[in-house]
Design a protein that fits this description.
This protein has 196 residues and is mainly beta. Strands 1, 2, 3, 4, 6, 7, 10, 11 and 13 form a nine-stranded antiparallel sheet that branches. Strands 5-12-8-9 form a four-stranded antiparallel sheet, with no helix packed on it. The chain is elongated. The protein has a single domain, classed as Jelly Rolls (Sandwich). The protein contains one helix and 13 strands, in the order ββββββαβββββββ.
Length: 196
């Protein structure tokens, strides 16, 4: 059973390893979604504004960008989460989900309507170092895909909803459709929510 099992949504201190309370951490418990325990990306990992990225190459991981980095996650107080506690949280969980929003200008995120393919789909690196995308992970779905036509501004919201708990959180992302002067993209990283 996941850690969140109270009655009203809000922030709560949890101690998944049930040891010393000194390593407990604060999470958001979402009871409108069945009792999810959520952690958030840190301020430097929660997203970037839309830009043309002229000095970067398509097919590169965000962590390789000049202004890029590995995505990090913190508790509700902005503090790092102890890895032992994170391991126990995963052990107490049956599934987890995380959304990733891609903001585009004439750039594909998932499905490319012009070629009816997913050849330029985003690729994600999971916490377990597993590379995930359309071609190898059935747990990623497009909730909305407003970037598939490459016309004007839009957004694509992808959701990783997985029983493979070690895949989350997403720690890096590869962008494959940019580089032309008229193409731009930005993104928002959503919280990771664990469900018992």
């Amino acid at each position: 059973m996941a850690e969140c099992s109270w009655l009203s949504s809000g922030e709560y201190w949890i101690d998944p390893n049930q040891g010393c309370s000194g390593d407990s951490f604060k999470v958001y418990c979402n009871f409108t979604a069945g009792g999810e325990t959520c952690i958030y990306p840190d301020n430097k990992s929660n997203g970037v504004r839309i830009s043309s990225w002229p000095k970067e190459l398509p097919g590169s991981w965000f962590s390789e960008f000049k202004r890029g980095k590995i995505l990090n996650y913190v508790d509700a107080e902005g503090s790092s989460i102890n890895m032992v506690q994170m391991t126990f949280l995963r052990l107490l969980t049956a599934s987890a989900r995380q959304n990733f929003t891609y903001h585009c200008h004439q750039s594909v995120a998932w499905h490319d309507a012009s070629s009816d393919s997913h050849d330029k789909a985003l690729r994600f690196l999971g916490a377990n170092d597993e590379e995930m995308s359309f071609d190898n992970n059935p747990y990623i779905t497009a909730i909305t895909d407003g970037c598939e036509t490459r016309k004007g501004y839009g957004k694509t919201v992808l959701e990783l909803n997985t029983p493979k708990i070690d895949q989350v959180p997403i720690v890096d992302v590869m962008f494959n459709d940019f580089g032309d002067p008229n193409q731009k993209f930005g993104f928002d990283v959503g919280p990771v929510c664990f469900l018992g």
